[in-house]
């Protein structure tokens, strides 16, 4: 039995947090937000307090039903199993496999390769190319897969976990594109870097 | 229905996860080897790309469909061939299993796989891979303090265990110091003693080169 409202540890710009926010909204689940700013104070995800809650030092994390879950797709699958209405996964196991495949393509194959902490590692001058490569490589595959799975949405005509991953990733791609366009005139690498870093949290 | 076909590379950690699942569930299958380094990488062939646009292994052709992404494959096997169980009954334990699996499958493996290491450049590869693994293992070791029994989550083998030996196996290649990870090491050792992890090991695959064969 649930004790108190669920608490979502989230950053407004984090695409992984957004996935979970969509799921909570779709399932009409009221929750509290604790904001974890990934850039302030050296990154609030690195505080001792947050690390004790989520050793992965990442958002999102969801405190619900007496446990704390990290990893957005693990959270979404838990919500699906414990609050099954409305559905986020189809009934048919083959369609479920396609939903999970598309979700994982984004959540393992694209997002981790262009998130804040990776971009910090690749170095300022490489960030734009790196982010573009991660996204276009993944989107090339995704576009091809969707030719056989998509209806109105990623898999058929109902919103599923795959769509929860898609929208935030497309938003990320948009920000990467915009930051490149904004700086397509005379520019400093510093400005572009700040925009890429801030747009990929 | 015809035997499933697994597109696999002997050394691919993601392929190994699926091989373990197929072994645990006693599912007979055919292997089509996709060599990630020969011929510029056989995953880039037009033929394979048509089958799996992600140009990655593993892919499993089963029941008239082809599924990519190892965890999506494993969840499909669990839902259609539920015996023996890989996921616990309790939704909270299922969440923990998926959290650990995703920590490895999204948080560690993609950051140190072949195609990323090619991009970071030869001189940076070791440091990069070490960073990816130690960063993930630091978190994992801490999480296991509250979830682990004999294995990652309690005492039964689950998808999180399937992700384990494959990533652990890379620690040798990348010279990762394992001293800070006694729980991870203990669990890995227990798993490698199990038959399914043994038969699916990279050193015992149809495409394992003779010099690496057990």
From TrEMBL, chain A:
Q: Which Gene3D superfamilies match?
A: 1.20.1050.10, Glutaredoxin
UniProt GO MF annotations: glutathione transferase activity; maleylacetoacetate isomerase activity
What this protein catalyses is:
4-maleylacetoacetate = 4-fumarylacetoacetate
Q: In which pathway does it act?
A: Amino-acid degradation; L-phenylalanine degradation; acetoacetate and fumarate from L-phenylalanine: step 5/6
Cofactor(s) needed by this chain: glutathione
Assigned keywords, A-Z: Phenylalanine catabolism, Tyrosine catabolism
**InterPro entries the UniProt entry points to:** Glutathione-S-Trfase_C-like, Glutathione-S-Trfase_C_sf, Glutathione_S-Trfase, Glutathione_S-Trfase_N, GST_Zeta, GST_Zeta_C, GST_Zeta_N, Thioredoxin-like_sf
What PROSITE patterns does the entry give? Answer: GST_CTER (PS50405), GST_NTER (PS50404)
Domain GST C-terminal per the UniProt entry, residue ranges: 92-201
Domain of life of the organism encoding this protein: Eukaryota
User: Might you name a Gene Ontology BP term for this protein?
Assistant: L-phenylalanine catabolic process
Q: Where is the composition biased (Polar residues)?
A: 191-201
User: What GO CC annotations are associated with the protein?
Assistant: cytoplasm
CDD domains recorded? GST_C_Zeta, GST_N_Zeta
Protein's UniProt keywords contain Membrane: no
EC number(s)?
5.2.1.2
- Please name the top-level EC class of this enzyme: isomerase
Do you know which Pfam families this protein is assigned to?
A: GST_C_2, GST_N_2
Give the protein family.
Answer: Belongs to the GST superfamily. Zeta family.
Q: What is this protein called?
A: maleylacetoacetate isomerase
Its source organism is Bos taurus (Bovine)
UniProtKB/TrEMBL annotation, chain B:
Tell me yes or no: is Disulfide bond among this UniProt entry's keywords. no
Q: Where is the GST C-terminal domain?
A: 90-210
The prosthetic group or cofactor this protein requires is:
glutathione
Alphabetical list of NCBIfam families matching this protein: maiA
Q: Which GO terms describe its cellular component?
A: cytoplasm
Q: What is its main location?
A: cytoplasm
The answer to whether keyword Lipid metabolism applies is no
Key words, A-Z: Cytoplasm, Isomerase, Phenylalanine catabolism, Transferase, Tyrosine catabolism
Domain of life from the UniProt record: Eukaryota
- Specify the pathway: Amino-acid degradation; L-phenylalanine degradation; acetoacetate and fumarate from L-phenylalanine: step 5/6
Q: Where is the GST N-terminal domain?
A: 2-85
Catalytic activity as recorded in UniProt: RX + glutathione = an S-substituted glutathione + a halide anion + H(+); 4-maleylacetoacetate = 4-fumarylacetoacetate
Example GO molecular function: glutathione transferase activity
The similarity annotation says: Belongs to the GST superfamily. Zeta family.
From the Swiss-Prot or TrEMBL record, give the protein name.
Maleylacetoacetate isomerase
Please give the InterPro entries that the UniProt record associates with this protein.
Answer: Glutathione-S-Trfase_C-like (IPR010987), Glutathione-S-Trfase_C_sf (IPR036282), Glutathione_S-Trfase (IPR040079), Glutathione_S-Trfase_N (IPR004045), GST_Zeta (IPR005955), GST_Zeta_C (IPR034330), GST_Zeta_N (IPR034333), Thioredoxin-like_sf (IPR036249)
Kindly list the biological process annotations in GO that this record carries.
L-phenylalanine catabolic process; L-tyrosine catabolic process
* Compartmental location: Cytoplasm
Q: What Enzyme Commission number does this protein have?
A: 2.5.1.18, 5.2.1.2
């Amino acid at each position: 039995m649930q004790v108190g409202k669920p608490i979502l540890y989230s950053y407004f710009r984090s695409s992984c947090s957004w996935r979970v926010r969509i799921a909570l909204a779709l399932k009409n689940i009221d929750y509290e937000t604790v904001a974890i700013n990934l850039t302030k104070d050296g990154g609030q995800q690195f505080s001792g307090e947050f690390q004790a809650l989520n050793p992965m030092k990442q958002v999102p994390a969801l405190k619900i039903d007496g446990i704390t879950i990290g990893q957005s797709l693990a959270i979404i699958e838990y919500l699906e199993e414990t609050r099954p209405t409305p559905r986020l996964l189809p009934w048919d196991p083959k369609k479920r496999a396609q939903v999970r495949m598309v979700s994982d393509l984004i959540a393992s194959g694209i997002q981790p390769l262009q998130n804040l902490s990776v971009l910090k590692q690749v170095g300022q001058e490489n960030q734009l190319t790196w982010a573009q490569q991660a996204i276009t490589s993944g989107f090339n595959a995704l576009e091809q897969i969707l030719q056989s799975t998509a209806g109105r949405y990623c898999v058929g005509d109902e919103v599923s976990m795959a769509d929860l991953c898609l929208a935030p990733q497309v938003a990320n791609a948009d920000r990467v594109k915009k930051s490149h366009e904004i700086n397509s005139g005379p520019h400093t690498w510093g400005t572009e870097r700040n925009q890429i870093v801030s747009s990929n949290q």
